[in-house]
Amino acid sequence: MKLSAWILFCLLCRALTAAQDLNWNFQPAGQTSGDQEPGQPEVQEPADVTQEKQSFTEPLSWRYPAPPAEEEPRYPPDFELKAPAAPDSVSAVCGESSVRVVAKKDLLGIGKPVHTADVTLGGCPATGEDAETQVLVFESELHGCGSQLLMNEDSFIYSFTLMYTPSPLGDSQIVRTRDVTVNIQCHYQRKHDVSSERLTPTWNPFSLRQVSEESLYFSLTLMTDDWQFVRPAAEYLLGDMMKFEVSVKQFHHIPLRVTVDSCVATVVPNIDTVPRYVFLGNKGCLFDSQLTGSSSQFLPRSQDDKLRFEVEAFRFQQDNSGSIYITCSIKATAASAATDATNKACSFSDGWQEVSGSHQSCNCCDTDCGTGNQSLGTETGAQWEQENAVGPITVKERPL
Questions:
Q1: With bands split at pLDDT 50, 70 and 90, how would you rate the model's confidence at 379?
Q2: Rounded CA gap, 99 and 184, in Å?
Q3: Beta strands at 383-396 and 235-237: parallel, antiparallel or unpaired
Q4: pLDDT exceeds 90 at position 97
Q5: Which end of the chain is more exposed for a tag (fewer CB within 10 A), N or C?
Q6: Per-residue pLDDT at 95
Q7: Can you give the three-state secondary structure of the chain, one letter per residue?
Q8: Are strands 119-121 and 241-249 parallel, antiparallel or unpaired?
């Protein structure tokens, strides 16, 4: 009994001690530390909590990874671009009065034959084709196929142009080769040895015999804007004036007057092709100013054996190349012959006017001026004609 009472007493004491500790740490709401009862321990208030924004005092060390290094391209050793070599595919033989041109069908030297119809000599098609040797043959008189006669102190030079114009492939509008032109020249000496044969007397005037037996040499030339020099480049812009000078070499001849009977523009050096534009005709009537309202005109003569005219540059509507050839029929008559309907140079500006002032000779320009006198029976009736061409002339669109 005494042991049980002792255990009960100890438990009671511990319970009282715990209750006292609980009262000391408990403080009712609204009671401040100054209001606490004497003998009770002071209750500590919690310190104020301050929130701060997290910051980094050290820079970030992480970076995006660098792209992989590019590899140096690898080239074959000792590589060199091949320099294109001009193919030896065209040859010519100049005869006494004709020329024979032979062209390989592999004209470009690339191992692919060209179409026969795409190659012409001054607009003339091939006259023959050798299937075994794969060549095209062109034959022409010296004055045919758009040839141009040039002349220097020692030689006559007949110049031809072999032209290759590729046609589109199949039904497409593409080509894989370019236009090619090859210039071909035949040179002939102007000076020859002659024998001392017995002269045959003649009662014809010496000057008339010389002019009737010796060939005349005509020229059709593009000139610079000041008419002082031959124009080095046949390129114009739309609206420019193309300046032409025709002349005849007199040598031992009687004094001559040169005129232009007709001029035709084509896209190839062949007046029998289309499109074509006859801007001068009817024995010396310059129609272009009348037909299109241009400023084309003949210029006053400075001498009888030369004649100048200017034509406003033009292009054919359906031709994108802007390339034209001008072929003119040039005529020379004795300077003593009168200016008439068949020997004139007429421009249109508020009516027809002739450069020498003989305006009545232009009255037939709107009708038919006839064929003229072809007789060599008298000095004043003699006349000689030749067809000359110039080109290609390139006419570009004027930039806006």
A1: very low
A2: 10
A3: parallel
A4: no
A5: C
A6: 85
A7: CHHHHHHHHHHHHHHHHHHHHHHHHCCCCCCCHHHCCCCCCCCCCCCCCCCCCCCCCCCCCCCCCCCCCCCCCCCCCCCCCCCCCCCCCEEEEECCCEEEEEEECCCCCCCCCCCHHHEEECCECCCEEECCCCEEEEEEECCCCCCEEEECCCEEEEEEEEEECCCCCCCCCCCCCCCEEEEEEEEEECCCCCCCCCCCCCCCCHHHHHHHHCCCEEEEEEECCCCCCECCCCEEECCCEEEEEEEEECCCCCCEEEEEEEEEEECCCCCCCCCEEEEEECCCEECHHHHHCCCCEECCCCCCCEEEEEEECCCCCCCCCCEEEEEEEEEEEECCCCCECCECCEEECCCEEECCCCHHHHCCCCCCCCCCCCCCCCCCCCEEEEEEEEEEEEEECCCC
A8: unpaired
Give the number of other Cβ atoms within 10 Å of residue 193's Cβ: 4
For tokens 């006669």, what's the residue? 149
Among the listed residues 266, 84, 80, the one whose alpha carbon sits nearest the alpha carbon of residue 180: 84
Q: Which residues are 137's β-sheet partners? A: 102, 128
What pLDDT score does 263 carry?
A: 92
Tokens of 249: 């070499």
Please tell me which residue, 146 or 11, carries the higher pLDDT value.
Answer: 146
Structure confidence at residue 172 as a pLDDT band (50, 70, 90): low
